[in-house]
Automatic annotation (TrEMBL):
Domain of life: Eukaryota
Source organism phylogeny: Eukaryota, Metazoa, Ecdysozoa, Nematoda, Chromadorea
InterPro entries reported in the protein's UniProt record: 7TM_GPCR_serpentine_rcpt_Str
Keywords for the protein's UniProt record, in alphabetical order: Membrane, Transmembrane, Transmembrane helix
Descriptive protein name: G protein-coupled receptor
Pfam families reported for this sequence: 7TM_GPCR_Str
Key word Metal-binding present: no
Keyword flag Membrane: yes
The organism of origin for this protein: Pristionchus fissidentatus
Transmembrane segment boundaries: 6-32, 53-77
Amino acid sequence: LLQIGAYRFLLLAFSVVDIFISIVHFTLVPGIQMTEFGFIFFGFRFMQSPTDVGIWAGLIFVALFYQTFVLLCFHYVYRYVVLCNPSWLRWMQDHPWIKWICVGLTIDLLYIGGTHANCLPTYTHSQCCQDFY
């Protein structure tokens, strides 16, 4: 395990996120209903809960679901940096953990923030959804 170096932490993060996704998926049991005006994302186990609880449960699921894509990108970036050691990343060698975590959090927030901003109209309660159900 020590032979793979710092890559083991990236593998550990990937597996922990996958476990969390499985737990949230089991808890939420997500579903999507396609309609003429778009889609409705809901959790089967939160149908009797207040709307706000269901929305937050859905947001947590979506955030964790997209973590796999972000972590997969970091797998490729890590391999590229280790194998090629590009000169434009020399500034990262001083305190690399702090800088990589900051870069990762920034990219993660932008990716998830963009996804949520794109779907923001579907998070709010609307008369159209009320009439459909």
